[in-house]
Amino acid sequence: MPPFLLLETVCIFLFSRVPPSLPLQEVHVSRETIGKISVASKMMWCSAAVDILFLLDGSNSVGKGSFERSKHFAITVCDALDISTERVRVGAFQFSSTPHLEFPLDSFSTQQEVKAKIKRMVFKGGRTETGLALKYLLNRGFPGGRNASVPQILVIVTDGKSQGHVALPAKQLKEKGVTVFAVGVRFPRWEELHALASEPREQHMLLAEQVEDATNGLFSTLSNSAICASTTPDCRVEAHPCERRTLEMVREFAGNAPCWRGSRRTPAVLAAHCPFYSWKRVFLAHPATCYRTTCPGPCDSQPCQNGGTCVPEGLDGYQCLCPLAFGGEANCAPKLSLECRVDLLFLLDSSAGTTLDGFLRAKAFVKQFVQAVLREDSRARVGVATYSRELLVAVPVGEYQDVPDLVRSLDGIPFRGGPTLMGSALWQAADRGFGSATRTGQDRPRRVVVLLTESRSEDEVAGPARHARARELLLLGVGSEAVQAELEEITGSPKHVMVYSDPQDLLNQIPELQGKLCSRQRPGCRTQALDLVFMLDTSASVGPENFAQMQSFVRSCALQFEVNPDVTQVGLVVYGSQVQTAFGLDTKPTQAALLRAISQAPYLGGVGSAGTALLHIYDKVMTIQRGARPGVPKAVVVLTGGRGAEDAAVPAQKLRNNGISVLVMGVGPVLSDSLRRLAGPRDSLIHVAAYADLRYHQDMLIEWLCGEAKWPVNLCKPSPCMNEGSCVLQNGSYRCECRDGWEGPHCENRFLRRSR
């Protein structure tokens, strides 16, 4: 091969050895911190009165490909801007040989319009006249801007290879109060970017090729300068060592090669060895400091158990690399599963009161829960709704059977902000949270609403919660200690509330929630002594068919107790056209006899008075003479449709004052005020939508009765003393002080004086 051909080949080879993917700016931090920087860039949001003007280099030295990357950077920045005529205004110039206004600051008032216009910008080509563009802005100002009445931000995206002077016009712009960000593209000349950028320069120099890092750096600087607070309070701006590289051409001695030289003295051509040099592209490193925002990551709480390693994934996701013994389980935890048939709706607080951080914690909890407990053969169906001003069903119950698809759908649920209207959300969740399924009774799976919140409701919750429970929904609450009392009011029981103190403690609630979803606890207290009277509304407003439903319900409840004179005694009173004791407390000593007697109870019809029936129980049923036992807890359960209860509040309170608990089971779509008054100050009320649905509230009733049976008993209430004798407590027992003419332990015997 001729020598000159060899020389050409070597030169081409050397010029082609440019690393195509070597970063020109690198932050020297751990991989985990780089992930946090990337995540924080997606969480930033600037909502302040500010004018931002993009000045994009469209010259030949940048090229069409890098110009498109400049546009992508500008669009990514706009994703974090609250663009409107009153808040953030955005405009754009393209410069090359001459500056060209793409659109002024007052052209568009929405983020979508601005991003669409930037996307349509066409590369022009030409010389790199950066200085000419800066002088244009010096003379004419920000087109469509607010005349320096708000902060002015100039974002110059260029390769820094201007064909004119830039330092002086850049200095003059900055002296007029303009904040200048110099953002490099392609192979930037950092010294020129240094001259363009505002002080402190290291905080105002970025690289558009690394769009998430550059976006983070820009908003970190804006946060530090108080132009706009772009992140949540938990996030912080920190200085990190970094390195910026420039691409330079250097000459390098490559050795000697044969060459031929002519001579002035002779016409001959002489052969010789000549030095040979090659030109190489090399990167020169310049140490620097980069300022970036990081936010608490999903791995900060160390969610992986049993020696697992946490690997962050996205905004709030992570993956645990588990030891072999725990492989395949979420968080490397012991295996959980949902064995029961359940429709589960997670209700997430997306209001301003909970904040973005709280909302992300709730989403992470739901994602980890479904990953931990759902299997291919699971009979559980899951949905997710969010609420603030109104309810939004983001993932309908049962839409996704595949867990990865369900988890991906959760990633797309946005934070909404706004007021915390929890009561309205509960009402809507009860009405439409589970779709339009018409299945009832045994054909319908258990339906559960799991409420996750960290802020108190701004509307009333007690009524909507009763409405939801009346629709046969089990309500469970997961929240911070600040909302514990409200969650207990909503769910109806402290046992249905899970409280956490910190993010890791929230994740620890997953096994407890799994247990509550499938437990059908039978809270019967078979060995607990109890005197129990059922009071049934048998008026014409109820009707024979509904009365039969009540009889079936009472029989089912009776099966939960050990009926005998030493443990549980049951009596039954019916009222309608009259009040009648169907059977007293001490008349049915066995369960078989009790069940037969319930079935034989009469339907009376007519107009009923609940107040008269309660007074009847006070005077003629719940008394020592009629079988009530001293020192035994006593309870009355009223089943009524609500009519005829207007006169019942005072008699009910008379029973309570005498040591007898009263629970009201109100049947019907709407509860009357008279029933609410009858329920008393402790709100001893169960709302049942229809008589056919009584059976679905049996567990709640039995649990209430067992709770009442455990309260301390006053031995003198009701008084065991007959014939107007007085009961006196004495040394853990009692004695009866009888009136003249009566004697016996309970003043039950008339004292006859013998004549002399």
Secondary-structure blueprint:
Layout: H1 3-15, E1 25-27, H2 31-43, E2 50-57, H3 63-78, E3 88-95, E4 99-103, H4 111-119, H5 130-140, E5 152-158, H6 167-175, E6 178-184, H7 190-196, E7 205-207, H8 211-224, E8 236-262, E9 269-294, E10 309-313, E11 317-321, E12 342-349, H9 355-373, E13 380-387, E14 391-395, H10 403-411, H11 422-432, E15 446-453, H12 462-470, E16 473-480, H13 484-491, E17 497-500, H14 503-507, H15 510-518, E18 530-537, H16 544-558, E19 568-575, E20 579-583, H17 591-599, H18 610-620, E21 634-640, H19 649-657, E22 660-667, H20 673-679, E23 685-688, H21 698-709, E24 726-730, E25 733-737, E26 742-743, E27 749-750
Name the descriptors.
21 helices; vWFA_dom_sf; 6-stranded mixed sheet; 27 strands; single chain; 756 residues; alpha/beta
Structure write-up:
The chain has 756 residues and is of the alpha/beta class. Helices cover 30% and strands 26% of the residues. It has 21 helices and 27 strands. It starts with a helix and ends in a 6-residue tail after the last strand. The model is unreliable at 1-23 and 437-443 (pLDDT under 50).
What's the total number of strands? 27
Strand content: 25-35%
Spatial extent as radius of gyration: 40 Å
| Global morphology | elongated
N-end to C-end Cα span: 159 Å
- List the total number of helices: 21
Assembly type of the chains comes to: single chain
* Average pLDDT figure: 84
Helix percentage range: 25-40%
| Class per helix and strand makeup | alpha/beta
Weakly predicted, low-confidence segments: 1-23, 437-443
How are strands sequenced across the largest beta sheet? 4-3-2-5-6-7
What's the main sheet like?
A: 6 strands, mixed
Main location: secreted
Subcellular location: Secreted
Keywords: Disulfide bond, EGF-like domain, Repeat, Secreted, Signal
Domain EGF-like: 296-333, 712-748
